[in-house]
Amino acid sequence: MIRVAGAPISWGVCEAPGWGHRLPADRVLGEMSALGLTATELGPDGYLPADPAERAELLGRHHLEVAGGFVPVVLHDPGHDPVPGVVRALTAWSGVLVLAAATGAGGYDEHPDLDEQGWRTLLGNLDRLDAAAADRAVTATLHPHVGTMVERTDEVRRVLDGSAIPLCLDTGHLLAGGTDPAALAREVPGRIAHVHLKDVDAASAARVRAGEVSYADAVRAGMYRPLGDGDVDVAAIVAALTAAGYAGWYVLEQDTMLDAEPAAGEGPIADVRRSLAHLRTVAA
Q1: What are phi and psi for residue 18, nearest 5 degrees?
Q2: Does the structure show a pLDDT above 90 at 13?
Q3: What count of other Cβ atoms lies within 10 Å of the Cβ of residue 162?
Q4: For strand 3-5 and strand 199-200, is the pairing parallel, antiparallel, or unpaired?
Q5: Which of 158, 284, 176 is nearest to 230 (CA)?
Q6: pLDDT in tens, 133-143
Q7: 3-class DSSP state for residue 138?
Q8: d(CA 2, CA 151)
Q9: Which of 22, 55, 264, 268 is a good FRET partner for 43, with 20 to 30 A between their CA atoms?
Q10: DSSP secondary structure string, 214-266?
Q11: How far is Cα 100 from Cα 82, in angstroms, rounded to an integer?
């Protein structure tokens, strides 16, 4: 048996400025529950109630637990200490802490290169945050992500070689950044503590890497696909992690933008349903 969770981003709910129409939490959580999912990630800061009791009541109404949450944070600036802010958030945390090495620019359409001092700072902060989370019985992971400081294959390798923090294996963002997620799952399964499953059109991703189209425009045009409809080898990834004894969450994520509120029973739920069916087939 594998553990499968949902994520608000599959319903178009994102922290990036100007991302699009944001569906209310009650609808998103209700549709997750209707699909048979048993957990969700938290979504952007403030999307679910910050108060633990209020959040538990909302999730309880939909029979969901928390699988984790995505936290973009600036890690490379020697003049900024990210640890106190993350530690404050951990006082009310549950699930896996999914860190991304934010550029500080907002959104995911820029990818500056780091100098050596920036890399030393980023890697040191990752280890500090990994330890701070472990002290609070929380698993921290680093999420390679398009438009962050850790996007490309060489940057993923530098994190693996230069820090001890586990990875969130985001299958779509890795492929979009030029890394084969199935090969990475086979090579370093012991460094993977959380999984975001998404499929991606490799040709669209190549255009983003080449600077021919922005990340936001590529997502708007459908770069991310339901599982089985793109170029990610989902079956190979699940097989490699299962063989290695992976027992964490598989979070269904298909980054989506919405222009308006879909009719009841329509919209993102249809794509998540297709992804869930494909995952159940390859994991059987």
Answers
A1: 65, 25
A2: yes
A3: 15
A4: unpaired
A5: 176
A6: 999 999 999 99
A7: coil
A8: 27
A9: 264
A10: -HHHHHHTT-EE-TTSSS--HHHHHHHHHHTT--SEEEE------SSPPPTT-
A11: 12
